[in-house]
Amino acid sequence: MSIKHILFDLDGTLLPMDQDEFVKFYMPLLAKSYIEAGVQVDPKEFIGAVWKGYEAMVKNDGSRTNREAFWSYTEELMPISPEESEKLALRFYDGDFNQAARATSPSPFSDQIVKTARRRGLHTYLATNPVFPRCATMNRIRWAGVDAEDFELITTYEDQRYCKPNVEYFRTILEELKLDPAECLMVGNDVEEDLAIRELGVKTYLVTDTMENKKDLPIHTDYMGSLEDLLEFIRTMPLD
After folding, report:
1. Bridge partner residues of 223 (DSSP)
2. Do residues 197 and 170 make contact, with C-beta atoms less than 8 angstroms apart?
3. What is the Cα–Cα distance from 2 to 194, expressed in whole angstroms?
4. Bridge partners of 17?
5. CATH class of the domain at 5-17+104-236
6. How far apart are CA 125 and CA 156, in angstroms?
7. What is the rounded CA–CA span in Å between residue 156 and residue 96?
């Protein structure tokens, strides 16, 4: 059965980056934005609280959105209410967060890849780990030089209830869009997070430009190569 749907990861895939370097760059910016807004918080403690909130999203069991999981967890760790804190965060992600684009390495192949897929009649979706607000995700799409309009779905923390590598994140997408796993391809750079979808019978393409494999897991994928290789793969792969 041929591929009809492609799910793309963003960070490290369509937006090449070293994830650790990116986080080291933008987390202090986030802490600084709170302090400049008058929030009395130690930067290191603040960043620690953000990481705890991130862990709450990764461990989310589907009983609430990732947004709810993040802010409910940080309620006891922040000196201001979750509502006030979220307002400051959204202001940051709309503005100063864009400085973090300097910690990424956009590729001219990314937009070509997505547009080539669409020209060939394939459906394209952005299956980026939903740990960011929509505004932050839209900015990262823009940094990548890709058009948000080219995706039929963009996952964000507002509307998702699981995170990678939880296979339920992928299952939710497939069920919501009524996709046949045998007709899908997941494109990502993270061995643990993106290849987890194979459990559902979805083929995978591992992008190697900035591949992540922090746990040194065995690599089981149908295809792998650079973004340039991926472009040629999508140009030439057989379609019904």
Report:
1. 205
2. yes
3. 20
4. 104
5. alpha beta
6. 12
7. 19
Residue 235 three-state SS: helix
Alpha-carbon distance of 53 to 70, in angstroms, equals 4
Sequence-separated contacts (24+) of 93-97 with Cβ below 8 Å: 93/132, 93/133, 93/135, 93/136, 93/139, 94/135, 94/139, 96/29, 96/32, 96/33, 97/26, 97/29, 97/30, 97/136, 97/139
Q: DSSP letter for 223, please.
A: E
Q: What is the Cα–Cα distance from 88 to 48, expressed in whole angstroms?
A: 17
Reading the block at residue 158, the tokens are: 């507002």
> Which amino acid makes up residue 233?
F
- pLDDT tens track for 8-46: 999 999 999 999 999 999 999 999 999 999 998 899 999
- Model pTM above 0.90: yes
pLDDT at 240: 77
Best CA proximity match to 65, nearest among 130, 115, 110, 126: 130
Band (pLDDT 50/70/90 cuts) for residue 79 is: confident
Higher pLDDT, 1 or 190: 190
Q: Please, which residues bridge with residue 7 across strands?
A: 125, 186
Query: Nearest-CA neighbor of 103 among 161, 196, 3, 23?
Result: 23
Q: Please give the Cα distance from 188 to 175 (Å, whole number).
A: 20
Domain ranges across the chain: 5-17+104-236, 20-101
